[in-house]
Amino acid sequence: MKTNIVQHIVRQIPHSTLHTILFLAAFLLLFSWTDVAPADVVFITLGVATVAIIVYRRRIGELFRDGKAYAVLAFAAYVSLSFFLISEQSYVFGLTTLYGVGVYFLVRYWATTDAGASAWPIRGYLAAAILSSLLGAGAYAAHALSLVGRDTLFFWQGDVRVAVFFDDPVVYGAFLAPALLICLVYALSTTRSAVRGLSTVAFFLIYLNIILSGSRGAWLNVGIGLAVLAALAVFNKNPWRLFSLRRTVSVGISSAIIGLLVLFIIPLGSETYYEATLKDRLVTSDAPRFATWKAAPVFSSARPPAEKIFGSGSGTFERYSPDGISAHNTYLRVLFEQGVLGLVLFTLFLLAALYSLIRRIQREPWQIRQWFFLAALSGALVQAFFIDALHWRHLWILLGLL
Fold it and tell me: Which one, out of 12, 123, 257, 372, has a CA that is 20 to 30 A from the CA of 21?
């Protein structure tokens, strides 16, 4: 058993420079507490080198094998054009969106030109998710035992919500959601004991951290992902041929027990996790968001007709919203800032990505990897109704691997 585990870990070590860079870039997503994160340095460096390689090899056609690449390029071109047409906007917001598109094309290029490259961003991302979950679980245990307070590293702004190296527990929870689904699929489907054991442990660590992030959007993300996995299993007519029924039941029951214990029973000082951070969230967090969404049609319609069609420019939503509150809705932000045309281009890209993935699953329904891609993407796109997701680096990587 120990030998099998060691062999499995050794296989996760990259054996070429490109694979090492892709692994490192995804792993460094762990450190995302600043606007410019360590991973960005690696992605930008690799991006510059990749552009030079594409120009030298004259292989730009590798990037445009289907419609979704053209759709996202059109969206990026539209955002870029707005820089010259609209002066009063946040260039940081716009450049962040363009950077995400650049990461998409970077990952897409190497995934299509190097047969083994697509696995390494996933492995680096999983390593980051597992390590951050270990640190988050350790911080939670230390706080539950009264060894550390809430003002220490890994907790968010003196709250009990765990964020580890992220500046926002909501983004941290969203970051972990795809990793949870990947680990769950392997824990339930693989016949190799070493992989099954590691995946199960990783699943529960990540699951604990998603709970501790306190992000109900991330919980919804996971719920949608699980529903998609269940639907795919039913679609295959014999789900227990792919997933172990005994393991599925035991993991489900264990997850429910852990969730109840962490949220409502285990004390953190004089209160439970629910009492400390979730009990009053409807008033402190949800009410301002709902008020902004309710007011959005009013302050949106007050703009000139041209802005309704072409948008007010990146990062301008807060300038119009009551009290400068963020959109907390990716699609509303795109509609307001890039207009109807921008939202149409962005939606076409997402629909093309979903369509190509579904078609691939229809052709090869036994490819489990495509299952968690669809589950993870579906969960993220639903969560995007409740948070601004254009700056999620892991989402652009996921889209690039499709």
Answer: 372
**pLDDT > 50? residue 10:** no
Residues in the chain: 402
Q: In this structure, is the dihedral angle defined by the CA atoms of residues 126, 128, 285 and 208, taken in order, positive or negative?
A: positive
User: Which tokens in the block code for residue 332?
Assistant: 């509303």
- Residue 338's closest CA among 97, 93, 82, 85? 82
CB burial of residue 313 (10 Å; 0-12, 13-18, 19+):
buried
- Residue 241's Cβ-count burial label (10 Å; 0-12, 13-18, 19+) is exposed
Query: Average model confidence (pLDDT) for the chain?
Result: 84
The burial class, CB within 10 Å (0-12 / 13-18 / 19+), for 237 is exposed
CA contacts within 13 A on the Cβ side of 241 = 9
Both structure tokens of 356 = 């190509």
State residue 163 phi and psi, 5-degree precision: -130, -10
For residues 13 and 350, the model is more confident at 350
324 and 68 Cβ atoms separated by less than 8 Å: no
Contact 32, 39 (CB under 8 A): yes
Tell me: the pLDDT tens digits for 275-309? 888 888 877 788 888 888 888 888 888 788 887 88
Cα-Cα-Cα-Cα dihedral of 248, 251, 252, 253, to 10°?
A: 120
Residue 212's pLDDT band, with cuts at 50, 70 and 90, is very high
Q: Which amino acid is at 198?
A: L
Query: What's the pLDDT at 279?
Result: 84
Tell me what the mean pLDDT of segment 230-238 comes to. Answer: 77
CA atoms within 13 A on the CB side of 131: 13
Q: What is the DSSP letter of 280?
A: T
Please state, as a whole number, how many other Cβ atoms lie within 10 Å of the Cβ of residue 260.
Answer: 11
Evaluate the CA torsion angle 225, 231, 236, 242 in order and state its sign.
Answer: positive
Burial profile 2-32: b = 16 or more Cβ within 10 angstroms, e = fewer: eeeeeeeeeeeebeeebbebbbbbbbbbbeb
**DSSP 8-state symbol, 62:** G
* Residue 180: pLDDT band with limits 50, 70, 90: very high
Question: So what's the pLDDT on residue 339?
Answer: 87
- Going by C-beta distance under 8 Å and a sequence separation of 6 or more, which residues neighbour residue 309? 339, 340, 341
One-letter identity of residue 375: A
Q: Please say whether the beta carbons of 83 and 310 come within 8 A.
A: no
Q: Could you count the other beta carbons within 10 Å of the beta carbon of residue 77?
A: 13
